[in-house]
Amino acid sequence: MIQIFKNKTDFKFTNYFGITSVASTALVAGSLYLLFTMMNYGVDFRGGAEVQAKFKNSVTVSDVRGSIEKIGFEGTTVQRIGEESENEVLVKVLANKGDLNKVESEIEKGLTTRFGAGNVDIRKVDIVGPKAGAELRLSGFQAMAYALLAIMIYIGLRFDFKYAPGAIFALFHDVSIILGIFALTGTEFTLQTVAALLAVIGYSVNDTVIVYDRVRENEEKFSGSTLSDNIDRAVNDTLSRTILTSGTTLFVSGAMFIYGGEAIHSFFFAITLGVLIGTYSSIFVAAPVTLLFDKFFGEGNEDSSNQRAMSSH
């Protein structure tokens, strides 16, 4: 197996938990504020239409966007589909309930006026009403909440109750900050983003479980050590694996984010952020919360919690 470090590391990660906990709390609080005040929901969640159009002659994205905006539609976004030479675009517009039946004809009229009759072929139109959009938005957040609940139950059964809150706080931390960055940058929040966030939840909890598994092994092996020492050992033991796994995943997701095109831009933006933030949270969010819960619910000291962990095996 490839090793990043030739000799075993002995970093005292727990010494920095005070600083990282304050920083993470501030980032989550700021992200939640941005989520509720600045989030740019896409057509999927606000209601509107997606129109796929193909042109016979070459067109630019800005020209297409300008022709749509002249008609009076708000929230217009235009992205290419496939190679530039294919002259195919996806147009997303917001529309009120009364406008939905006229979206296709109005857009076709605007594009024909700008680019000429016979030059535009409307290939597909998907319409989402405002009410359906709101329901989709609620369903997306519910899906993430159910995923967190299921993971909490799994961690509690797989390890011990004291580990479950740390995993959930770490996942909530990851999702909140990603959404905050989306809101801050004005990136559209779509169904693709929900799918990416669910993937991030799976990736992040896997990283956390690996650390927890090593902590449990250390509790058995070093029964006289404190939970803090066992966490430091666990993180150092898995550090090379974490760097290799996260680095490889980050390389792929980053390449897709940069070169993959607008159609998958938001998906891989969320994945790339998730790899970075998830790796951080597995060490500096999940572990401090576990220490905190063990302090208050571990029958008064860490040694008793170690004995309970040993007796469970």
Please provide a written account of the structure.
It contains twelve helices and four strands; from the N terminus they run ααβαββαβαααααααα. It folds into two domains: 13-41 and 132-311, Up-down Bundle (Multidrug efflux transporter AcrB transmembrane fold), CATH 1.20.1640.10; 48-128, 2-Layer Sandwich (Alpha-Beta Plaits), CATH 3.30.70.3400. The chain has 313 residues and is of the alpha+beta class. The longest helix is centred in the middle third of the chain and has 31 residues, at 191-221. 35% of the residues are buried. A four-stranded antiparallel sheet has the order 2-3-1-4. β2 and β3 (88-94) form a beta hairpin. The model is unreliable at 300-313 (pLDDT under 50). 66% of the residues lie in helices and 10% in strands.
Summarize this structure briefly.
With 313 residues, the protein is of the alpha+beta class. The chain is built from 12 helices and 4 strands, in the order ααβαββαβαααααααα.
**So, the CATH homologous superfamily of the largest domain?**
Multidrug efflux transporter AcrB transmembrane domain
- The CA-CA distance between the termini, in Å, is 29 Å
Mean pLDDT: 83
How much is the radius of gyration in Å? 24 Å
